[in-house]
Write a structure and sequence with these properties.
Helix content: 25-40%
Strand order of the largest sheet: 2-1-5-9-8
Distance between the termini: 8 Å
Number of helices: 5
Number of strands: 9
Strand content: 15-25%
Radius of gyration: 15 Å
């Protein structure tokens, strides 16, 4: 089996510590078997601010991520500490172009509470990147509760998922 013909770019959107993306990439590379690129610098998420809601539009955030379109075979996932929304949702952990090239993951509402294990934010971030990446590959939500493509309404539901896709989802994303 050859390597998937994709490359993943993890882009900092706002004040995300570079170590969060480096460590997230380390968690994802063995699973995806895709090259993961971490561009220098960060994208300014301020243009996506909706002042009335005091949140950031996930749809506008995707527009920012594809203003300079990724190249052929590149999936771009922005990671942001900003609180995302869509008009029909009070908040989101992530949002993706279904079958497209870009997605965004927010760490705002998945940050661990005091006393929770160290590394939990990285685990949750990586699982949400997998989830949104799956949507860019055309996957819908999965019924397997442990699959990365299973929907999560609360951070604790993210914790219940494996850092993996079920076999049918994996066949789409990583070519198993």
């Amino acid at each position: 089996m050859g390597q998937a013909p994709w490359r993943l770019e993890l882009v900092r959107v706002g004040a995300v510590p570079p170590a969060v993306l480096r460590e997230t990439a380390k968690l994802l590379e063995p699973l995806l078997r895709w090259p993961i690129h971490l561009p220098a610098g960060e994208l300014d998420g301020a243009p996506a601010l909706d002042a009335a809601r005091r949140q950031y539009s996930a749809a506008r955030m995707l527009d920012l991520l594809v203003a300079a379109p990724p190249g052929e075979g590149v999936k771009r996932v922005g990671v942001t500490p900003l609180d995302l929304f869509l008009p029909v949702f009070t908040h989101l952990y992530g949002y993706a172009q279904m079958g497209g090239q870009a997605a965004v993951v927010s760490t705002f509402r998945i940050r661990p509470e005091n006393g929770q294990p160290p590394g939990l934010l990285l685990q949750r971030t990586a699982k949400e990147v997998l989830h949104e990446l799956g949507h860019t590959m055309g996957l819908v939500h999965c019924t397997a509760p442990w699959c990365a493509m299973h929907p999560s309404r609360w951070p604790e539901e993210i914790d219940l998922k494996d850092m993996a896709y079920c076999p049918p989802c994996a066949s789409v994303v990583v070519g198993h």
